[in-house]
Amino acid sequence: MFIYQPRAERRYRVAWYGGESTMLHFERVNAAGNWREIDCMSFMYGLPTGTKELYQAMVEYYDYGITMEQDNFLATIF
Fold first, then answer.
1. In total, how many domains does the chain have?
2. Contact status, residue 16 vs residue 29, Cβ threshold 8 Å
3. 16: nearest Cα among 38, 43, 34
4. What is the model's pLDDT at position 43?
5. Distance (Å, rounded) from C-alpha 68 to C-alpha 78?
6. pLDDT digits (tens, 9 = 90+) for 26-68
7. Residue 28: closest CA among 40, 41, 46, 45
8. What is the mean pLDDT of residues 18-25?
9. What pLDDT does residue 45 have?
10. Structure letter (DSSP) for residue 59
11. What's the whole-number mean pLDDT along residues 4-20?
12. Which of 10, 24, 41, 54 has the least C-beta neighbours within 10 A?
């Protein structure tokens, strides 16, 4: 399992569970301390061939997930 979670971030992360999985999972921790999937994304062209490409995909998906969460929050306010 590989996880991308910025150092200061404690509530959100992106996880890839390894093996033959072609999915990234955007997750949020709940009050009990368990991670819950909010969204998932499939690699469009198969798994990245290197660690650098996997890391970049995880960073981009994390940014997308955070933007999605902010948009959802703002939609509840307005």
1. 1
2. no
3. 43
4. 82
5. 16
6. 999 999 999 999 999 998 777 788 889 999 999 999 999 999 9
7. 40
8. 87
9. 74
10. H
11. 91
12. 10
Long-range contacts of 2-6 (CB under 8 A, 24+ apart): 2/54, 2/58, 4/55, 4/58, 4/59, 4/62, 5/62, 6/62
Structural domain of 14: 2-77
Could you tell me if 36 and 78 are in contact, meaning their C-beta atoms sit under 8 angstroms apart? no
Q: What is the pTM of this model?
A: 0.85
Strand 23-29's sheet: what is its strand order? 2-4, 12-16, 23-29, 35-42
Assigned token pair, 9: 């971030």
CB 24 within 8 A of CB 35: no
In the chain, the amino acid numbered 12 is Y
d(CA 46, CA 44): 6
* Residues 27 and 46 sit within 8 Å (Cβ to Cβ): no
